[in-house]
Amino acid sequence: MKLFFRKYGQSGYQPLIILHGLFGNSDNWVSYARRIADEGFEVFIPDQRNHGLSPHSEIFNYPAMTDDLLEMMEDQSISRPIILGHSMGGKVAMFLALEYPESVHKLVVVDISLKAYGSRPYHQQLIQAMQAVDLNRLNSRQAIDHELQKEIKELRIRQFLMKNLHWRDKEQLEWRLNLQGIGQNLTQMFDAIETSTKFTKPSLFIRGGASDYILPEDYPQIRWNFPYAEIITIEGASHWVHADSAEQFYLISSGFMNDDKV
């Protein structure tokens, strides 16, 4: 699948690929990408399948998203990139690093582990809330926000989801997300990555101290598959650690990525 992507920085610099999470898109990481590009990185931010401006598909799982990423790397002649992934994007990053370790230079995983996460009904609730919005009747973001508020009380979550709205024409808003395709395959997003393969290159796991996505009991498995992993907690940050503590996150991640640059 040919993914839409945004690109920052100059060709020939160390490539960095940033992978957004579920319900996100490349736009979520533009400010970070522009800043890190100024430090000598060639930054690519794809929209993953069923998200943003990338194609829709009924197939939605980690092997397929990894294949999409490999295809983009081949098409753009991206060699040995650093991969940074948040949440769902972090699982794609781990899958790529473990299945194709020779293709990855370094790994940064943001608030996700290898484990299975079981049923997460809240995510299905978000999909159902978006699907329930009558976009033929509501033609303003304010009206859609009011409708979503019936099921989604957190303003921050509504604002995040509404970044996926765009004007199909002058009078009609629509979701860029493939809500049906994501919803039908949602449970696969919470599957474990189970492999005996090890990624023996530098790896950094950044977790939010107020998040339950990476817990101390997950450390042994992380360090088994990623023997050189460093695990850093940003206290007080939620699952959206890169947004909650943007400056601290930037300093930690950029320091790791710049560590071996000449």
What does this structure look like?
This protein has two domains: 179 residues, Rossmann fold (3-Layer(aba) Sandwich); 64 residues, no CATH class. It is globular and about 55 Å long. The longest helix has 14 residues. The protein is α/β, with parallel strands linked by helices. The chain has ten helices and nine strands. The model has no long low-confidence stretch (mean pLDDT 96). The strands form two sheets. Strands 1-3-2-4-5-8-9 form a seven-stranded mixed β-sheet, with helices on both faces. Strands 6-7 form a two-stranded antiparallel ribbon. A hairpin with a 5-residue loop joins β6 and β7.
Keyphrases for this structure?
Rossmann fold; 10 helices; alpha/beta; 9 strands; two-stranded antiparallel ribbon; globular; 262 residues; single chain
Give the name of the CATH architecture of the largest domain: 3-Layer(aba) Sandwich
Q: Characterize the overall form.
A: globular
Going across the major beta sheet, what is the strand order?
Answer: 1-3-2-4-5-8-9
Distance between the termini: 35 Å
Residue share in helices?
25-40%
- CATH topology description of the largest domain: Rossmann fold
The Rg value, from CA coordinates, equals 18 Å
